[in-house]
Amino acid sequence: MDETRRDRDTEGRARNARPRDGLGRPLPYGAPGVGRQPEGVVRTPEETVREAQRLLDAGMPFHAHEVFEDAWKSGPAAERELWRGLAQLAVGLTHAARGNATGGSRLLRRGTAALAEFAPARPYGIDVDGLTGWAGELADRVAATGAGPVDAAAEAPCLRPPVR
Predict the structure, then answer these.
(1) What's the confidence (pLDDT) of residue 9?
(2) Contact (CB, 8 A) for 89 and 118
(3) What is each CA distance from 74 to 43, 44, 88, 109, in whole angstroms?
(4) Distance CA 109, CA 132 (A)
(5) pLDDT of 85 above 70
(6) What is the pLDDT of residues 3-54, one digit of tens each?
(7) Which of 87, 92, 86, 128 is nearest to 107 (CA)?
(8) How far apart are CA 51 and CA 164, in angstroms?
(9) Do 158 and 52 touch, CB atoms closer than 8 A?
(10) CA neighbor of 128 nearest in space, from 141, 139, 117
(11) Of 1, 41, 90, 115, which is most buried with the most CB atoms under 10 A?
């Protein structure tokens, strides 16, 4: 790859072709990286939640954010804030895992605010109250301590409550 030119997709849009690590950080050209989430995938809400949870559990919140972003962009207008809020929680965890306590806590709080209206309805079985509690606790912890990177897999939230 000629690193002096911008990477472009087949339509000519700028796309960074550098490999990425599990937290979405660019690596040098030629380095082994983690496969990217394809963009623009239309999934059912069930598929979205299942794929995002798989990625969160694997310590890949940046990739989970991309799954939520697809739902946010392709879903009905009435659900956009739900998916946007979930994407913000995933990005907040990404920042906290990268050691960015300020950005992590801000995005976790922003995602919590976006999800507030959905708490009573629990759309698609998503544990909105549990998620907002998790996000608030993590935001407080990383902001108060200025904690270094958190373990994204160990801190991964459960999108749905455990089945009893």
Answers:
(1) 60
(2) no
(3) 9, 10, 17, 24
(4) 8
(5) yes
(6) 455 666 666 665 667 888 878 878 788 888 777 777 878 899 999 999 999 9
(7) 92
(8) 22
(9) no
(10) 117
(11) 90
Quick one: tokens of 110? 């922003």
Reading the block at residue 107, the tokens are 């995005």
> What distance in Å separates the CA atoms of residue 135 and residue 117, rounded to the nearest whole number?
16
Contact at 8 Å (CB) between 110 and 91?
A: no
Concatenated DSSP letters for the chain? --TTSPPB-TTS-B---S-B-TTS-B--TTS--BPPPPTT----HHHHHHHHHHHHHTT-HHHHHHHHHHHHHHS-GGGHHHHHHHHHHHHHHHHHHHT-HHHHHHHHHHHHHHHGGGTTT-GGG--HHHHHHHHHHHHHHHHHHT-----TTTTPPPSSPPP-
* Tokens, residue 50: 């299942």
